[in-house]
Amino acid sequence: MTPIRCAWANPANALYLAYHDTEWGVPCHDENRLFEMLNLEGAQAGLSWQTILNKRARYRIAFDDWDAHKIAAYDATKVASLLQDAGIVRNRLKVAAAITNAQAYLRLCDEGSSLDQFLWAHVDGQPLVTRWPGDAPPATTKLSDRISKELRHRGFKFVGSTIVYAYMQAIGMVDDHAAACFCACQAGRS
Length: 190
Hints:
- This protein is mainly alpha-helical.
- It has helices spanning about 15-20, 30-45, 50-60, 70, 75-85, 90-110, 115-120, 140-155, 160-170, and strands at about 130, 175.
- It has a two-stranded parallel sheet with strand order 1-2.
- Helix 2 (about 30-45) runs antiparallel to helix 6, helix 2 (about 30-45) packs across helix 9 (about 160-170) and helix 8 (about 140-155) packs across helix 9 (about 160-170).
């Protein structure tokens, strides 16, 4: 018997199903993955998540496994190389944002904090479990507005409220699985 999933989970794409079933809405506290997902959500702006998910493995290679120290030091030669890499989204602003985000992330760490501490403090360390009417989550919330504003203030790029809300879903700060989805019964899973 096929489990019931959220309507957006594309059954024709194994990567997408695995992402829905094992990552989306699952609390994440791994710094490297938090940094990766922040940048991937920004790269997705104007595109489908499926496009980014299909390019995720190449992104990891192209961006040095999301090592913020390496990314923060990228020079014009590395940027030119990235802009020629068909395996990622070749958008100059999005590539530049990843570099800027690495620098902002390192400043956050220099302050004695981390993405994990910064983000999860907004929800007292516990995911917000929501079941929206009609199972359609909003594009933004007051919380995503606030986090977006704080991230921009800290120098992060491609962190508008819509991107931040998608990010919050991706890292499990919010669990917006549809009420009938088999993952909804596993709230707080890790």
